[in-house]
Amino acid sequence: MLKIAICEDEINQRQGIVSIIKKYLNLAQKQHKIVEFSNGEELMISVLDFDIYFLDILMNKITGIDVAKKIRCINEKAIIIFISGIKDYVFEAFDVRAFNYILKPINEEKFKKVLYSALESIVKRDKFIIAKTISQKTKICLKDIMYVESEKRKLKIHTTYDIIEYYYKLYDIEKELSGGNFFRCHKSYIVNFKYVYSYDNTFITLKNLEKIYISKYKLNDFSKAFMYYLKNEEQ
């Protein structure tokens, strides 16, 4: 179930936000729980275990920025969306890695797009594959996979924390990773765009400075797909 916190000191504004969220989550057939807070103090003494936070910025005593800083100390993955009548705090919002910044008066169409984008981000974040060996099954989150390497009949899943090896076909895992940020750049490699630092005609250099091969036949398609990925990441 999706858990959402709304922190807004103006009751009419808060109820309006709740109404919009319920409308579009019901249309998306998404089970959800919404908890309302009338000030930052209430939210800061709560469990702070929500998937999405909608925060007003200018509230009595504690600002939405201060609340967001507390959230980030406890919940790194949470999506924080600011709602404010002024633009002055946009750069401070960047400092707490805000997902978006919605200006009042709220445009419902804009709000819907931000909400659905947040839902999509959560789905992508939580996706995983299962690596099966004779003795165990290992859950691997897609966001942690830097690249996949095929060596004979065995796959090596290079993650941010380990290398997981098991017998599987690269073709089959390519299908499992489709629709995400992954690209088959070589007959033996699939790379996650998230970890690409640079590339040339022969190699893709990852952010940890590892290099993997890129096929000359894949170079043009890779370049287009990577540019598309970067463009969408900036939005």
From TrEMBL:
Question: Where 4-aspartylphosphate occurs along the chain?
Answer: D56
Q: Where is the HTH LytTR-type domain?
A: 129-228
Name the Pfam families on file: LytTR (PF04397), Response_reg (PF00072)
Question: Phosphoprotein: is it a keyword of this entry?
Answer: yes
Q: Which keywords label this protein?
A: Phosphoprotein
- SMART domains, per this entry? LytTR, REC
**Keyword check for Phosphoprotein:** yes
A single MF term (Gene Ontology):
phosphorelay response regulator activity
Q: Which residues cross the membrane?
A: none
- Response regulatory domain boundaries: 3-119
| PROSITE patterns linked | HTH_LYTTR, RESPONSE_REGULATORY
SUPFAM superfamilies found in the cross-reference section? CheY-like
**Which PANTHER family is this protein grouped with?**
STAGE 0 SPORULATION PROTEIN A HOMOLOG, TRANSCRIPTIONAL REGULATOR-RELATED
Its biological purpose is as follows: May play the central regulatory role in sporulation. It may be an element of the effector pathway responsible for the activation of sporulation genes in response to nutritional stress. Spo0A may act in concert with spo0H (a sigma factor) to control the expression of some genes that are critical to the sporulation process.
Name the chain's protein: Stage 0 sporulation protein A homolog
User: Where does this protein come from, organism-wise?
Assistant: Clostridium scatologenes
- Tell me the classification of the organism that encodes this protein: Bacteria, Bacillati, Bacillota, Clostridia, Eubacteriales
